[in-house]
Amino acid sequence: MGRPGTRRLAVLTVVSAAVVTVGAAAPPAPKSEPAGKTPVAVGYGGAVASVDKDATAAGIEVLKHGGNAVDAAVATAAALGVTEPYSSGIGGGGYFVYYDARTRTVHTIDGRETAPQSADSGLFMENGKPLPFDDAVSSGLGVGTPGTPATWQTALDQWGSRKLGSVLKPAERLARDGFTVDDTFRSQTAANETRFRYFPDTAKLFLPGGNLPAVGSTFKNPELARTYEELAKKGIGAIYRGDIGDDIIDTVEHPRVDPASGWNARPGKLAEKDLAVYRAKAQAPTRTSYRGLNVYSIAPSSSGGTTVGEALNILENSDLSKMSEAQYLHHFIEASRIAFADRGRWVGDPAFENVPTSRLLSQRFADSRACLIKDDAVLTSPLAPGDPYHPKDCDQGGEAAPTTYEGQNTTHLTVADKWGDVVSYTLTIEQTGGSAMTVPGRGFLLNNELTDFSFAPASPSVPDPNLPGPGKRPRSSISPTIVLDAHNRPVVALGSPGGATIITTVLQTLTEFLDRRLPLVDAIAAPRASQRNAARTELEPALYDSPLRSQLEAIGHRFTLNPEIGAATGVQRLPDGRWLAAAEKVRRGGGSAMVVDQAP
């Protein structure tokens, strides 16, 4: 059957399966799909993995009806805007990485939110001091121009085979008919209850009848269903040049606050021209060679591709497959520390900053940094950055640039189709619950993405590439990744939410899978560590409470407990041509992996 790809007329052939065998053999597919979530599925015809079974099912529905990976990715993302509204939605942004099986090439879209044209470096300064972070989050000041709708349309225009209205239908139906509330949705609502009550439109939608939604109840969002219906009819111009955009601007400039709350929701300065000039940017991916494989990800404005890539280049100096678990974790932690030190100094929006992307990803620079790692000692953080323009071996001079705080909750989806195309897509509204401001009558929350900027320079002597500016994109850690073999055929694709921990989650999952040979679903489930050039490394409970902690402390590591780091999903191309979809077993209530036709 012909491939419906990118408005092409030619009939295209299936790209043969990758011959590289990575990780352990695929686990057996379940005999029948369970009523709840399943974290792994194997079969033919395409695959989808996300944190939510209704969203994953939306993508599978599109694949079953002949859509390609891009069509299914947009459908899945739109459904996540219904079921994961505190982590994603059309009020936010994200980064889209696409592998075209016909040309065996990787393409990316930067759909990051932008600051208003009126913004300057003092956006979050008040009375000469940086605003408290919480004050900036639940306000109009933190809202950037949404990039998600433009990302969807750009991806569909370039590589899709369906129109926006078609792929929005599963999500529109889901919003109208509702989904079943689970523990995760209720707990996330509870965590945001106080600030949701600041804003009457948010409280009305997410606290029905003034109460937390009950587990097992059906949550409906008819306003969002109507918004999707309007987008289907009018296109994304309804947001960037139309009525929905007018409502977004009014919400940002005049936040509707419950007077009894006493909350000072500072207005933002988003204007019609900010929406009108917004574009999702098609750009070249980052590329890193690792163990004979080609690792592609997103380039700045996200720091994901450069930071994961640099850390991989550093780790290539070590044989992780032969190390003990403690040795492996030590090298992983130290490589993360070094890469984050360099990220903080050098990465920002390349439209405004001179970002040395290729130099950060050079093996020469990585080698000059790798020699800092010792088997029996730990580097001290904050570690000073290296100089990618003039690499000096083992240089520890200079002043460190601290890591900017980023909200923990985002969401990631991974999709493959029967023609061999792959999408790795991470989208977000920043904090869990974003700005907490719902656009009245529209059913979606607005982002607080501008709080990813540095509020003020960390030091007068260290340049900060991540200060606000007019139309500037704040630095991100989003790291959607696609790994190809030496013949540019897919091996694995993955990504994760988690703020700055996205980088370490992707790096750890990749090395657990590629080097430590864990099956993909087990590499995703493995207990995590996250070091981001801080005095202490965060550990999940399974590591924090294990003997590995004391072994690492013996050589100088210091740790703090983090209950949960990331929530990854991925797809793997098996040697026989089947797809394996994998998601979390437990984190965020477990993820959902599905394939079009399960293997017998």
Label the overall shape: globular
Percent of residues in β-strands: 15-25%
Helix run count: 20
Average pLDDT score: 92
Alpha carbon gap, first and last residue: 22 Å
Class of secondary structure makeup: alpha+beta
The main pleated sheet reads as: 13 strands, antiparallel
Gyration radius over CA:
22 Å
Low-confidence stretches: 4-35
Number of strands: 20
What's a concise summary of this model?
This protein is of the alpha+beta class and 600 residues long.
Polypeptide structure, described:
The protein is of the alpha+beta class. 31% of the residues lie in helices and 16% in strands. Strands 1, 2, 3, 8, 9, 10, 11, 12, 13, 14, 18, 19 and 20 form a 13-stranded antiparallel sheet that branches. Strands 15-16-17 form a three-stranded mixed sheet. Strands 4-5 form a two-stranded antiparallel sheet. Mean pLDDT is 92; it is low at 4-35.
